[in-house]
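Deliverable D5.2: sample structural annotation.
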Amino acid sequence: MPAPAAPRSRAAGGGLARAIDAIVDAPRFAHAWWGVEVRSLRSGRIVYARDAQRNLKPASTLKLVTTAAVLDALGPDERLRTTLETSGRLDGLGRILGDAYLVGRADPDLSARFAEGRPTAAFEEMADALRQAGVRRIVGRLIGHEGLFPGERRGDDWTWNDLVWGYGAEVSALSFNDNVAELTVAPGEREGDPIVVDRAPVTAYYRVTSTAVTGPRAGTRELVLKRDFGTNIVRLSGAIALGAAPQTLTVAVEDPARYAATVFAEVLAAKGILVDGGVETSVAPLPSGLRVLASHDSPPLAEVVKVVNKVSQNLHTEMLLRLLGARVKGEGTVEMGQAAVDDFLHRLAVDSESWARQDASGLSRSDLVTPHGMVGLLAGMDRHRSAAAFRDSLPVAGVDGTLEHRLQQPPARGNVLAKTGSIRYVNALGGYVTTRSGDRLAFYAVVNHHTGPSSDSLGALDAIAAVLAAQ
């Protein structure tokens, strides 16, 4: 059944319309663009709309589209397997006589996330399997294979500044530790002391140099972090005030597949398995005749999607889009992933013809969606066979994810399940509300071009959600 057409302006809603109008018509938003739509899931009726057909930047609420499409294609129980493979013979001395391939198949959680804080847990598991099989040496090379995703590692229209930090990490089918280095920095004991830097993981793949010092308690000098493009050398300078709390910086690393293979080689060495031929990477087709020496399976896709939407994980979303292209269209590129998403949106009867999607995560400043189309997606997914996994992936107001510290008071607390989105001059919120009267609503609200404090926009979005919950 086709989705109901969105009114050009607001739908009749009495007190609800007046309450939302009062929020978006506040003088501080005089120069901003708003788009809002609210639909009853019980009746299918649009109960409020404000410029719901306008194309607006969605920021991270675009993740709703990607995660819905991948759940539709693969299902919530799918697991993604990383393998170590070789065609080399294992001789009587415990030597693999040939190269070994660490094959990435888009598991985004080769990290500490599901491993009790141990980032190398998956690699340790695979190394232990090799030891048990009698392997003590790889005579050839250890090759990190990322051929499932042959295209560009960075998103279209991402900024230079994005690429330094974890939220703009390069995309690879073989990704480790979210393709970042985590640096925890803290002041020394006395003014003038070097700052304290802890690294995770500890690996030779990246290097940290620091001239930063401990500044006075009331000092205004700030810590400066730089990583030159094309290198994995992180430089710290400036100062951290005496007595300041430790902070963790997530820095993107270059060449993720080499990062993963290097750390795996270090884990193998620690387990007494040496690699003679060094570490390389490849996107070329895998050679024939390979057999699996060890493997690691990801958590179920429902848990992978939950990470994406709860904490708004950009890298994982970009990996899922390319995985969608590989599985549905036979090519793990952004273009084929978007083509698969287009097919999904068409099947769900989502009005998305005017949209522009340059990436999967919403980090691109060229992404455009309509509130009407996004509510159509939410309504469609509420009827989908993977509806429960999709809903469970969303932040819960006042409870977890990016809404843990928002909407903490009843009736919104626990009754608003929604994805957040924020980039410069863009804030959005979209998901589901269970109202005080027992109705269930799908809603999407977004504001673009508000150049005032982002707290204004966040407060307004939360106020809209609270109004809905109170109905």
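Annotation notes: The longest strand covers residues 233-241. The radius of gyration is 24 Å.
The annotation will be released with the project's public dataset once the embargo ends.
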